[in-house]
Amino acid sequence: MRDWLTADHPVWTVIDIIDRIDTTAFHKNAKTGGAGRAGYHPDMLLTLLVWAWSRGERSSRRIERLCTEDVAYRVICAQDIPDHVTIARFRTTHATACEDLFTQVLMLAAGLGLGRLETIALDSVKIASNAGTSANRTESSVRAEAAEAAEAARALAAAAVAAHEATDTSEDDEHGPDRPGPGSVPPPLADPRSRAARISEAIAVLDSARAAEQQARADKDTSARAYLEQAQSAAMPKGLPPASVAVAAAQLALEKALAAHAAKVARYEQRKAEAAAKGHKYGGWVIRPAEQDPKVIKARTRLARVTEAAKAAVAAHADPDIEDRSERVVNTTDPESGLQPLRGGNWLQGFNCQAVTSGDGVIMAVSVAVNPTDAPTFVPMMQAAVAAAETITAARTAGTGTDGEGIGVLLADAGYFSEANVTAPGPDRLIARGKGRYLEHAVRDTPTSGPPPAGASPVEAMAHRLRTEEGITTYRKRSHIAETPFGHAKHNLNFRRFTGRGLVRARGEWSFHAAVHNIGKILTLVGGGGLPATV
User: Fold this and answer.
1) Is 319 left (phi over 0), alpha (psi -120 to 50) or beta?
2) In sequence order, what are the beta bridge partners of 137?
């Protein structure tokens, strides 16, 4: 079969990679002996899945068909074609083993010299779960459906008892009370349990979430005060403010918009006066008044909206802590998934997937969470990146004989910004305080140089660094490093939705995708025909 493909075909390298790494975790559930035909070798099934995912094929049925039509797939399975059920079952039962696979592939990539650590980046992407938003229910509606299902079950049971009693009476009349006769419960009276089980699972998730909510309520006042303090001392934090300070935050945003407009007018007048003093003409355009400034209009509109919403909520609940009155939402198809906000105002039922990427595009660390907010994941992901850097350094030193290197700087966008993340122990980092265009405006309008001024807070020091030429030049690398793997995943590998349900399987699939991504980097580096003998 080696004559079917050229010696430099990349499938030989993929086969060689799976042969080199430790796949013990995938052998634990392998069929050994017993009745029936011999089981498929786990390494073959793993190689088949890696090759298929690297080509954007995620359907088990299409993979089965390609094993009969495509030469590379036929070579992998040696013409012993697995059916789609076997492929799907293998993927499902080895979700936790994929995390070990990711680590093994990362070490192999590092041994080949991949994994540049001088500049790395952290970012997130929203991936859809195997569930739709139409399956979302509020707590009251889920409990109402559960009560309705219980009532229906009781009615069904009562009908069954009544039917049983009527049948016994009829048969006693026909056969006599002491003689056995035919009789059975009709099939329509059988109790369907699948829907009731899903509702029960959703209620269990709600109950566990309510227990965690007790502690979260205690932290809300602290979070609200911290939000206002940060908004007063710097730019408005990204994301919606806590509901209890929504009006105050909107008022502060309006004041900042008016101040920014006034500063813009002052800069215009100053530059106009300087040009006039030199005999030059400056401008030619008209500065609109504050009432016509789009940002001021937007801030006024938001202030009016949140003020009316707060009044209506207080009138309805007579409680200023109105956010505690909102109902939790759970998805009855995948209760562990959550609603994720998308750019443009849309929503997606899924998970918030994190990834740390090295300067040469190798994914170093991954995680999956339900919380759509990025800031709480920064410290855990930074710690995972430090551990991955140690793994890369050790594998590179052993594999190539070169000196190891630590993380130079970690880049992250404004979604990860908080004072706690800026000051947390760990490697050097640059975390933006706003969108990229605002950073570019700050560098252009108020550039800085050298170290931060004495007495500057950590937040002020970060803002100072991002206004220096060196700082903004480094930060400009973030978009290419962090977002390219996500574009490759969605547009080239067709990874837009998880195939399984639940957080454990989502983490397994995300780790598997990261391993496939890194194998793609290895293929780009060494080409086809297999790995070098020295690795």
Assistant:
1) beta
2) 330
Cβ atoms of 461 and 447 within 8 Å: the answer is no
Matching residue, tokens 């992407």? 125
Q: Provide DSSP, 341-393.
A: E-TTS-EEEEEEEEEEE-TTS-EEEEEEES---SGGGHHHHHHHHHHHHHHHH
Cα–Cα distances in Å, from 386 out to 138, 220, 320, 391?
Answer: 40, 31, 43, 9
- Looking at residue 326, its pLDDT comes to 54
Distance of CA 234 to the CA centre of its chain: 28
Q: 106 is written with which tokens?
A: 């990362």
Q: Which tens digit of pLDDT belongs to each residue from 356-385?
A: 999 999 999 999 999 999 999 999 999 999
CA angle 172, 178, 182 (to 5 degrees): 55
Residue whose structure tokens are 């800031």:
375
DSSP bridge pairs for 338: 350
Give the end-to-end CA distance of the chain in Å, rounded to a whole number: 25
* pLDDT value, residue 169: 74
- Residue pair 447/463 in contact (Cβ under 8 Å)? The answer is no
**Range 440-446, long-range pairs (CB < 8 A, 24+ positions):** 440/472, 442/466, 442/467, 443/467, 443/469, 443/472, 445/267
- Of residues 17 and 185, more confidence is placed in 17
The Cβ-side half-sphere exposure at 177, using a 13 Å CA radius, reads 0
The answer to whether residues 418 and 375 touch, using CB atoms and an 8 Å cutoff, is yes
